[in-house]
Design brief:
The complex is a heterodimer of chains A (252) and B (256). Chain A has helices spanning 2-22, 25-45, 56-85, 88-93, 99-127, 136-163, 167-172, 174-179, 195-203, 205-217, 225-250. Chain A starts with a helix and ends with a helix. The longest helix of chain A is centred in the N-terminal third of the chain and has 30 residues, at 56-85. In chain A, helix 2 runs antiparallel to helix 3 and helix 3 runs parallel beside helix 6. Chain A is built from eleven helices and no strands. The relative contact order of chain A is 0.14. Chain B has 256 residues and is α/β, with parallel strands linked by helices. Helix content of chain B is 40%, strand content 25%. Chain B is built from ten helices and ten strands. Chain B has a six-stranded mixed β-sheet with strand order 6-7-8-3-9-10, with helices on both faces. Chain B has a four-stranded antiparallel β-sheet with strand order 2-1-4-5, with helices on one face. In chain B, strand 7 (155-159), helix 6 (167-182) and strand 8 (186-191) form a beta-alpha-beta unit. Classes of the chains: A mainly alpha (252), B alpha/beta (256). The interface between A and B is medium-sized, with 22 and 30 residues. The complex binds adenosine-5'-diphosphate and magnesium ion. Residues 15, 20, 38, 40-46 of chain B line the site of adenosine-5'-diphosphate (ADP).
Amino acid sequence: MMMKAIRDTVTLFGRSMRHIQRSPDTIITVAIMPIALLLLFVYVFGGAIDVGTGSYVDYLLPGILLIAIASGISYTAVRIFADAQKGIIVRLHSMPVSRASVLWAHVLTSLVSNAISLVIIVVVALLVGFRSSAGVLGWLAVIGILALFTLALTWLAVIPGLTATTIDGASAFAYPLILLPFVSSAFVPTGSMPTPVRVFAENQPVTAIVEALRSLLGSRPVGTDVWTALAWCAGLAITAYVVAMRAYNRAP
Amino acid sequence: MTDVAIRATGLRRSFKDKEVLKGVDFQVRSGQIFALLGSNGAGKTTTVNILSTLLKADGGSASVCGLDTQEQAERVREKISLTGQFAAVDDILTGRENLVLVAKLRAVPDHRRVADRLLHQFGLRDAADRRVATYSGGMARRLDIAMSLVGRPAVVFLDEPTTGLDPEGRHEVWRAIKELAADGTTILLTTQYLDEAEQLADRIAILHQGVIIADGTLGDLKELLPPAKVEYIEKQPTLEEIFLAVVGKKGEETHR
Ligand SMILES: Nc1ncnc2c1ncn2[C@@H]1O[C@H](COP(=O)(O)OP(=O)(O)O)[C@@H](O)[C@H]1O
Ligand SMILES: [Mg+2]
């Protein structure tokens, strides 16, 4: 039973990776916008932003990575929407295929394609001066947090993928997520923000995740940020998963 | 084992307070082509979805190859395949890749050969390695049906297999269905087209207002026509006339 589910997931994962291979723009587009933001902030605005010690690109990169993930997962919503519209999900459900595999294949695809986009962005960041003093454990922790954040947002993306009525609706939910890092400490320290904005910024998940990533990459003690970050990601992942599965089990 | 491949007994199903199926009964013998005929919204897809384990009935029961569609859904899925109302093909993949995908998921050994055979059988050999996005409607539908045959399921459900096709595509699909039946596969197809049922089916059931109002061979159904009428008609009565006659009669009953 379990073996069959794993085999089905791998087969369907292969299928959607082939989709990505045939339209690599889904990865390029995801990487381009964050890279443009990175260059814009490093070379144009960065000089005017005071982040204390350290280089601005080091300060900025974590937020840029989160923006890339937030825009990357909208493709998952679009791919699931397309499968639902074309009747491919119904076809799979009428076959001896594990139901869970149909969604997990998309989730796995999201994790892998986002990882590829992130690697591209990190390479560009290295070219413009990003440096990290983190060791293997630090990097593993960074990768773990990014993977968990991607997983959480991917399950969130499954919901509009299954329930949207138009393709634009399926991808539109990502816009607020992409904007969230702008109202956080991702680009500028929150200290300069007006009080109500600052209160929001300091208590929304992106700030905690960004701070945790920044500390890990800079080999500084992470403090409680990392636990707040993990709690946000895990909470979101579980909530989104439960809602997504309810939507999934309602459809034939 | 009986030779009844599909059995629907008193199937009922509502959506919200709309009663779509009000007790649908029919049987399909093994190896038959059975047409479920009904106008748009009659409940054909709902019936097919219940039989193919996608939807639960509110009442009644259904079985495929002696297996209950609710209690033994997993095993039913191994026996059947469903070609839905709209071609469910992956248009980013090629025709061959679509077939290989299904073969892998159905754990059919030797995917390559299975794909080759079906591409040949459905006249898709030349288009095999083109993306399905470039296919005509008729080609996509033929691929769709071919995908349903991977692993040789005993029972095939075809939900409105020719809706939306041009006459040429329609004839291509008819030919494919006839070949399929020659293999001994049991086929339940739904259609709004009376001539389609007449062309393909060994047995025809008419679904109207939530129940089967007529069920039999074309010959049986023709006998339902009021004999007086036959005298005035020179050509053979068409199913359309039978349909109207039967529906008309029922309509009067319900109006009284
Ligand atoms: N998921 C659903 N929710 C609400 N109503 C539905 C649903 N599926 C079908 N119906 C309604 O049930 C009736 C029968 O639908 P369907 O079985 O698709 O008919 P057919 O396939 O014969 O055209 C229609 O009136 C349709 O609007
Ligand atoms: Mg229908």
